[in-house]
Amino acid sequence: MKCGVVVFPGSNCDHDCFHILKHVFKLDTEWIWHKGDVDLSRFDLIVLPGGYSYGDYLRAGAIAQFSSVMKEVVRFANSGRMVLGICNGFQVLVESGLLPGALIQNHTQKFVCKTVSIRVESVSTPFSCECVEKPVLEIPIAHHQGSYFIDSDGLDQLVDNQQIVFRYSGPGGEVTDQYNPNGSVDNIAGIVNKNKNVMGLMPHPERCADPAWPNLDGQLIFKSIIYSLQDGVSL
Amino acid sequence: MIAKIHITFKDGVLDPQGKAVHHTLIDLGYNEVSEIQMGKYLELKMDGVSREEAENRVTEMCEKLFANTVIESYRFTLETAK
Q1: Which of A105, A177, A221, A227 has the smallest set of CB atoms within 10 Å of its CB?
Q2: Count of structural domains within chain A
Q3: A51: pLDDT strictly greater than 50
Q4: How far is CA B26 from CA A120, B23, B33, B36, in A?
């Protein structure tokens, strides 16, 4: 299993992702620079990390969607292989059309940086299949434009197709406005595409996946991906 | 040709920045203001294109890059450069 971590100018969670994949899970992992000749054929998983790609100019992810690497990531995703977008990576995925909806400024107008609870809404995705025993995860968020927006028809489709993977919740899994940190529609924290091979989420699983840290909930997401790829679970 | 482009949120999309500015205006006593739309403004200078070409090209640019049409709408005017 080979992983690639994309590096845009302005990515700043790339090293965390690389560290978790390479040093914690001992996976064969490479950096992928955003421009030049990009060949993704040797990879099984592409991670789009958090940060401020291209300074988040215009809109978060707006410029990144036209980078050389993203053209290939779209092709890679459309061929059914796995793509994980975290935070800014999620913003890039919605801008590039790989995931529906958009991410806008938090309703509080503030950058929010804290650990939140997210309820696992579906364990039948290759990104969440290992969460069966843990229906609520504690994962840090750190963003300013993390309010997920989608119109009501789009939301119906997400629900009908079981594309909502995580919702912001209380520690007991209560999905209410009180536990919505950014004003996301329906408390949405993470979604997959229809084929369930592309996931975007605002929380940072890579920030709670190193055993040096007491909270290891983020590992469940990486373990799900590894299980799905190595044990050949069909998507 | 000069294109002047305005991009604003669509109806129904929360605009926290506009809301905060509106609250401040009310605090300042401008009670007649019932709504604020905040957005982006871009000005483009284009060379060697007719008005019709410019119209098509700018529409394309707005759709592709300047606006995210999931959440934003755009409008623009074209002027002949002086």
Answers
A1: A177
A2: 1
A3: yes
A4: 42, 5, 8, 11
